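Chain A, query sequence.
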Amino acid sequence: MAGLISEETIAKVRKNLNIVDVIGQYVTLEKKGKDYVGLCPFHQEKTPSFTVNEPKQFFKCFGCGKGGNVFTFLMEKENLTFPESVQKGADIANIEISEFKQHSIRYSNVLIEITEEAAKFYHRVLISTNAGKRGLEYATSRGLDSAIIDHFCIGYAPKQNNLLLTYLRERKYKDEDLIKSGLFVQSNKGEMFDRFRDRLMFPLSNEGDYVIAFSGRRISNDKSEAKYINSPETKIFSKSKLLFHFAEAKKAAKSEGHLILYEGYMDVIAAYKAGIKSGIASMGTSLTDQQVYMLRRITNTIIINYDGDDPGIHAEERAAKMFAKTGNFSLGIVVLPEKLDPDEYVKKYGTVKYRDEIKAALTPTDFFLKRLAQKYNLDNDREKLVYLDEAVKEIVQLPNPVEQDLYLDKISKQQNVSKDSLKINLVKYRRQFNTARQHKASSFIADSINDDNIISPIEGNGTSKIDLVQTRLLYLFIHSEHARNYLLENKFLFPDQDYQKLAELWLNFCEIHKNPSANSFLNFIPGELQGIIVNTEMIDMPQDFSNKEIDEQIHSLQMRQINIQLHDLMNDLQEAKRKMDNQEIIKITQKILQLKRIQG
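Chain A, predicted structure.
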């Protein structure tokens, strides 16, 4: 499986990587005991079940069942081959792997290879060709200097119908793959054309920082054309699962302490120019549950800074409610003055004032109360009473009594009313709120009990049972030469063929490797067997053992096999009695008695 990379190089890369640091770029990990835990990057979950063991350099999700070492993680998360995962690890560890670069393409997925090539092409056109001058003039007029253009790999798609198509065909890409990339459209006659023409091009990267799609910004004044055109959804690109600038922002979140959610790419870039590198943006659409979960994996501190106009404020409201529904977020909301968007604000007031706006982000409750106040004429007593009633209903939903008291105090002072009177209303609405919540919970439980569509656990996922006896013996077989020799001398064979196959593969592995380890072994065995090794390593096995313990484990397996045989024989006996086959009844009964004697 090592492919074109030598085992020495693989070992060198593995030695220079810490799985906690690598996975920490995708998941916020918290130390619990000897392990690190976080939200799984492979499936959505509310309670963290994703575990990383630093001493053994293994990970395991006890929810979806995925597990392995650092290379397995990169393969799963970035859809890489094993050699590519080693290359990715080498890049992280700043290790040169010349043998790989000379003999192998960089990407296992041809669509990613095509979109990466297109990004380089558009960028070169923008910065170094006559055809790109029009795009460069527009980029400069928008305040994009050469450093920003290079950093975000911004490009330009010229007006010609098939410039990119010609370029990629010359590089021997097949038309069927080019169509699948989403970069081209096809006429009724089957003729292909570049999808993006006369547009400033923003590459859209996945979480691993590979370009998978584009967004093209119109630079002409022709308003009959869409302001932005995005790549269509493909096998590698889904709008609901992508956040612009996420690959870099999630690293910056560790130092800046938060992620900032913007409405558009130019806002993210404006923030970057202001020294804020933790900015991200959704794909010009409403925030999705998948994107919220992506953010929660990285940090629970999110600041929303959409445009300051009415649609932007409404979008902030919707986003804030989504974060509140998910829970466990510390949310800040920025509303810029004069209905400015972040890009316009930075140009008008500068980076220092913009950073001050970020620091002064409102809490969601402050934001909602201010929005609520704008809906009423507070100089009118009737409308003021309605406002106060609605405000208390908002405050009662806060789980923290200190927060409730803080905001009651605020609005009582702002509106010159008694705090005690507001508290009376709060108590009344709290009863109603709690009653409604309890009713909802009861209905949910009743529906769950009566649901005929409950799905049983799928065999092979994280909920499947682990054979602890065979797992313990396999652990000793791998980690102790004495235990291995003892088992071999006793001619022990694992009852399960997968465990037995692993034992045989381990013996072969030991013969050809100087310092064999479970971690290095993982990438040299079939994928369907890797889960057993991961489970073996992630279970907290005692290091000490004795021959007596091994004998007891073997005896336990033998008794298990006898119980299985007895169960089958009892079924056979019932069938023989049904047929009134006396000879078969005697024969089966004798076998049952023999096994019972062995059982003692």
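The longest strand covers residues 211-218. Residues 440-464 have pLDDT under 50 and may be disordered.
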